[in-house]
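Q: Structure for this?
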Amino acid sequence: MEELSARIALMYPLSEPAMAQFLSIWKSTTYEKGAHLLKAGQVSNYMYFVGKGAVRIYYQKEEKEITEWLALDYNFFFSIQSFFQRVPSRLAIHTLETSEVFMMHHDDLMQLCEQSHEIEKLFRKMITTSLILSQIRMESIQFENAHQRYQRLLNGSPDILKRVPLSYIASFLGITQETLSRVRNAR
Amino acid sequence: MEELSARIALMYPLSEPAMAQFLSIWKSTTYEKGAHLLKAGQVSNYMYFVGKGAVRIYYQKEEKEITEWLALDYNFFFSIQSFFQRVPSRLAIHTLETSEVFMMHHDDLMQLCEQSHEIEKLFRKMITTSLILSQIRMESIQFENAHQRYQRLLNGSPDILKRVPLSYIASFLGITQETLSRVRNAR
DNA sequence: CGCCGAGTTGAACTGAATCAAGAAACGTGG
DNA sequence: CCACGTTTCTTGATTCAGTTCAACTCGGCG
């Protein structure tokens, strides 16, 4: 819980009562490796945060599984479209390691946002961060080749290779497993 | 101004005084075709809205010009990273047609957000919309081929071909002008 | 008429996907 | 602790979408 509150404070420093209020709507559960937090077709009601652990967001696309996001150690994640638009999610979420997962229900968040301008503002900052990350990822996909994207990922999470199967990493990078293998072993 | 206020109301229906307050920080200017709203290297202080008209956001990348965004008739646009992070923008913005452009200064917006929870919430919704669009565009770039992306663009703005040179459209779609030409004339 | 920018067409090339085997690592039961 | 099957990863050959480079067409317009 301290890590969660530290990450929140980093985005926008809430007053003490607001922080307490905000933290109060987060529930924590420890999931075994391979457990599903969300299945495809459900409306995703939660925004999540992983403690120490690893989580994968993926979906089915023409008999292939696409890894949409990988969240390791102390990071937020959620199904953007489903959470905001309240529509069933194509995405599924499962753990890659036994992980402590914190989750906050959409309705609780909305209710707090109504009551508290401060929390509304925090939430706005969280979305802004997502938007900027989304832009950066888009540019990476559009202009960087397989090798550059792989390097970028390694810079951000050097230990990801030891913790996530290559097939997931390849899909997350938008390349095939074979290409990733070649890129890794080149030179 | 009515169009601007209509688009705002669509995202989040402000109370009358809040709407008046919000509209009051927007200034309007009519720019001739080819005029620059923003040059690369400047911090972008504004969020923009085009009335009837057309605007292009672009940047220099290794002696090529990349068209990052095209905004036609009654749409918002801005340099996301520069606006939020207050860093110099790689992006430049110019008009493709004589256009009425509305602009809102970052600091005015922030001040209003401090004062008014309602406006903060509107702003949050605006960013959320951007985030969802960004996700959709990312998926389009990653998984759709040149022909599909072209079709998607046409569906969204059928008259864009008549108003924007092909070289800009190609770059916006992330393909070369030659490929766009082939895609257009195929079959 | 000749030039100029915008768009098209053709041919060669390239990065990554696909298809197809293999090799290595992993774990489960004997 | 080993043997076996399964999953994960690598390697090779071929194919393909899209790029690059170069030449060409077309429609203004001074």
